[in-house]
Amino acid sequence: MSSTHPRTGVLALQGAFGLHRAVLTRLGEPSTEVRTIEDLLAVDRLIIPGGESSVMAKLADESGMMPVLRGRIEAGMPVLGTCAGAIMLAAEIVDGRVGQPSIGVLDITVRRNAFGRQAESFTTNLVMIDDADPAAEAHDFEAVFIRAPGIERTGSAVATMASYDGQPVMVRQENVIATTFHPELSGDDTVHRLFLNL
């Protein structure tokens, strides 16, 4: 692992990993695609993108990457999970595929596709408050919801950073940030900047 500038990886097993890399490039942040355990061990922080959570989890499980992911995150590696990535991080999945594995490092319960089908996708403005940093100012940002999961429960160690219609849609637990929306699609870099500052 790097002793100077942190190396940023994007899990590239399935899903919208290329769009996250494009945002990082726009922010001047080099990144690498993570497809193997060796790739994972070479990065200092990780984005888990949107996509199909059950497929992504199956591929990570079959490759032996799941326990390594869990161990790195529990040891403090910063991670951002968006949409399917939030499902991957969750301790409990409602309406998941039978036997669907998860990394289980974020004390939340999520429901897959809680916000409806692809045709019911929408964009809205949200207000982010960093509960982990009381001195931080709240500010608006744009969020794109596509087949988004719903967060139905948050544990006592989980801070809600943004809500929509009374439901958490962005949460943080220490070094883990999860969003049920797609920050890589909005053109608003707020979430990625927060992740890079972890």
Q: Your description of this structure?
A:
Helices cover 24% and strands 32% of the residues. The protein has six helices and twelve strands. A seven-stranded mixed β-sheet has the order 2-1-3-4-12-11-10. Strands 5-6-9 form a three-stranded mixed β-sheet. Strands 7-8 form a two-stranded antiparallel sheet.
CATH evolutionary superfamily: Class I glutamine amidotransferase (GATase) domain
| Secondary structure tally, helices | 6
- Order of H and E elements: EHEHEHHEHEEEEEEEEH
Would you tell me the structural class of the helices and strands? alpha/beta
Radius of gyration in whole Å, from Cα? 15 Å
Q: What's the end-to-end separation, in Å?
A: 17 Å
> For the report, how would you describe the main beta sheet?
7 strands, mixed
Features:
198 residues, alpha/beta, Rossmann fold, seven-stranded mixed beta sheet, three-stranded mixed beta sheet, 6 helices, globular
Reconstruct the topology from this structure.
Blueprint: E1 8-11, H1 17-26, E2 31-34, H2 37-41, E3 45-48, H3 53-62, H4 65-74, E4 79-82, H5 84-89, E5 90-94, E6 106-111, E7 122-128, E8 139-145, E9 150-154, E10 159-164, E11 167-173, E12 176-179, H6 190-196
Parallel strand pairs: 1-2, 1-3, 3-4, 4-12, 5-6
Antiparallel strand pairs: 6-9, 7-8, 10-11, 11-12
Give a quick precis of the structure.
This protein is of the alpha/beta class and 198 residues long. Helix content is 24%, strand content 32%. It is built from six helices and twelve strands.
